From TrEMBL, chains A, B, C, D, E, F:
Keyword Isomerase annotated: yes
Residue span, 4-oxalocrotonate tautomerase-like domain: 2-61
Name of the molecule in the record: Tautomerase
Active site per database record: P2 (proton acceptor)
EC number: 5.3.2.-
A Pfam family hit: Tautomerase
Length: 66, 66, 66, 66, 66, 66
């Protein structure tokens, strides 16, 4: 009965892409650990680029520099 | 000083219902473990049904099939 | 299909007390929001007092002062 | 490669303030533990006051009483 | 720069199995969303069965009944 | 009443270093957002290097290669 939380920046992931993440990570837990998919939960959080930092700066600023 | 995070799908929970969750889980921690309610924190996350998966598919798709 | 994470300091909560938290918070979600208990997950994290801070100091130091 | 999650109530924190949190906590991990800032991630969650509880009541109600 | 947290019960997952989860979920984010694997983080939490609940009871009790 | 979760690899951080993280991040929230330190919570998770991945491999393997 695993629980998976995936955090990505909010940049237009589609419902189809999110469904592919849910399907893929659930299958991975079946394949690697033999987990039951029926009790495997996945929660995707989409985070604004102002609210995500790496290297000491926000992704918003990092993207602007790139 | 417990911290509780409750994740539910975003499907119209009212402010009153959320207040009841906060009150109830705080009281539970007082009753079971004698925790101080003044330093008990509760955070409720409401998650879009496209972003929540169970059984390898999103709740959006699961609801459509049901 | 809610997911609940409860964080408490590691100070000897028994298996019975943890079972009571699991049972109580699951029932609360049934009572307040009509959620299905069969797909309600609860994860309890017990955190060392050196690793928990409030008021700018660790719980270990806070307990020593009290 | 630390990961930091900061949860605050959604009450108008500006992009500049959030950038200051990201910069400050990344520097703290460099100063205290010698961590590499390039692989230090920070995620800020802003939570509605209806969804945040302390002392058994929501911040919305608490603010109204104060 | 995604962040993934995988929670499983602590029941003897090997270092090789955990490496396979890390490799697999990182590749999934590359395939589905074109994310950069170099800044993709994965954290696996292994949780005692007394501390994990589903259906209102701990996994420890659930396993005993099965 | 912010809540901060800091995840680091378990590699011998001392109680003094963890106290410095707690003190530092609490002060940062006071300085940047004017938050009340008395209701600011910090939880530090120390994660085994087998359980932390970056770049598609565990930190254990990454350290071995370096």
């Amino acid at each position: 009965m695993p629980y998976v939380n995936i955090k990505i920046t909010r940049e237009g992931a589609t419902a189809e892409q999110k469904a592919a993440l849910i399907q893929g990570v659930t299958q991975l837990l079946v394949d690697v650990l033999g987990k039951n998919p029926q009790t495997t939960m996945v929660v995707i959080d989409e985070v604004e680029t102002d609210n995500w930092g790496i290297g000491g700066e926000s992704v918003t600023l990092r993207r602007r520099r790139e």
